[in-house]
Amino acid sequence: PALLLSIGIRERLINRPAVTDLVPAEHIRTGPTRPDKTPAIIIADGTTAIHGHDYTAQRAAWVYCDLHVWAVEDGNDLAKTIAFEVQQALDRKFPVPFEGAYLDHFRLTRITYPRDPDPNFGHAVISVEALIRWIV
Q1: Which residues are registered as beta bridge partners of 123?
Q2: Do β-strands 28-30 and 40-43 pair in parallel, antiparallel, or remain unpaired?
Q3: Tens-place pLDDT, residues 6-37
């Protein structure tokens, strides 16, 4: 389920011109949270909490994930601008990208702007939660 959510989020972001005007699509990825190129949006691995069985052939899980926004030029201001566009892109439920899986709940839960030890870096963390159901 965490992989489904990551793929769905990335697809939504790379298909939103307001996001890709600020962050090149190849800089929107999963992986370690410190970027090698900026600006960047990095989708962290997240956490999966198995919710249990819904009917005989279905399983469900809560998935919690953070998206890390990094910017060097214009630091915090650019990170906040990118975070706003990500919020707009993810502001409504979207289908998960695989047949047989369903996104029953999706919500942005918070956005924080932690200070990086390097004052040149702007950093935003966008937290999301999702309930994903799939057929076994």
Answers
A1: 70
A2: parallel
A3: 999 999 999 999 999 999 999 999 987 778 88
